[in-house]
Amino acid sequence: xxxxxxxxxxxxxxxxxxxxxxxxxxxxxxxxxxxxxxxxxxxxxxxxxxxxxxxxxxxxxxxxxxxxxxxxxxxxxxxxxxxxxxxxxxxxxxxxxxxxxxxxxxxxx
Length: 109
Known about the structure:
CATH class: Alpha Beta
Number of helices: 5
Distance between the termini: 21 Å
Helix content: 25-40%
Radius of gyration: 13 Å
CATH architecture: 2-Layer Sandwich
Mean pLDDT: 95
Low-confidence stretches: none
Strand order of the largest sheet: 1-5-4-3-2
CATH topology: YaeB-like fold
Number of strands: 5
Structural class: alpha+beta
């Protein structure tokens, strides 16, 4: 898979340094040349703590539990192109606010 973009990960761990190692690990696993996903079931075989669903606006997202369930990484996975677009990395409070859903639907992130 090809991960786009590491910048969002870096910006998050600069604010939350304890998140750097788990995000680096996620980056290495997902970005590995041998990682090939065709659908959400493949993602779930790679990561136990993951959920896929469609937002109310119809945008499909995959939500990864990061750092022992301390953080959430929201991504768009384009299986046919083997691309993972990191949309947001969030604390639990940010995730629970659901603001990120509106931002993704409006194309803001």
